[in-house]
Amino acid sequence: MATEGYTHPEFLVDVAWVDAHKGDGNVVIVDCEVDAAFARGHIPGAVLVPDNYEKDPDSGRLFLMQPAQFKAMCEGLSIGDDTTVIAYDHSRSLTAARLWWALNTYGHTDVKILNGGWRAWVTNGGAVDFGRAAPKSVTFTPKRDDSKLVKVDELKQACQVGDSVIWDVRSDGEWDGSNSRGNKRVGHVPGAVHLEWFNLMDSETNEFKPAAEIRRILTEHGITPDKNVYTY
């Protein structure tokens, strides 16, 4: 897998790596799609995340799961404190990246994304399974790191600071207010730059674009390493 130039190439793995390690006792492969897609076929031994946005149902599905909820979900997926998690999806890593972020927010940093996801697995002749793996008895200890989250007041302050970039990764319709997506208010945060997330992905392979191309795209939008970047 070509990972030259990425700051953290260890966050991504390829089909060969997953195939070689899928039977390891400390590895859990998590399918981040929905039940219907999982039933149509998945990587052997994979488990299905029950909510591919890891949202708190008690908040009206607006916020990340609370610690007890997240702990229960992870243990139900056989994810323990010493587990290496491999996340994949068929959505250009949208929901796999969401799980990566959620796990990191709860202190579990040993998580990787299958670059190219399900498309890469099938294209490269990976075996397909239709069963459901039996859960293992594990303990997951949530250690929430709120430094990976921003609150409204902090974001308001960032709007007025020159060394900050507020990056709106949503669709064009959400950005310009023509699509409310069920929200009470439309539009975007004042001063935000708009770059929909999938512009960093290869639409044919579902893989992340090369590091140099990603840097070029981000730089063109003023998203550079010297800035504090806030995304929504």
TrEMBL record:
| Membrane-spanning parts | none
Q: Which residues form the Rhodanese domain?
A: 23-130, 160-232
Decide whether keyword Kinase is in the record. Answer: no
Recorded GO terms, molecular function? thiosulfate-cyanide sulfurtransferase activity
**Pfam short name (any one):** Rhodanese
What keywords are assigned to this protein? Repeat
UniProt signal peptide? none
Q: What is this protein called?
A: Rhodanese domain-containing protein
Natural source organism: marine metagenome
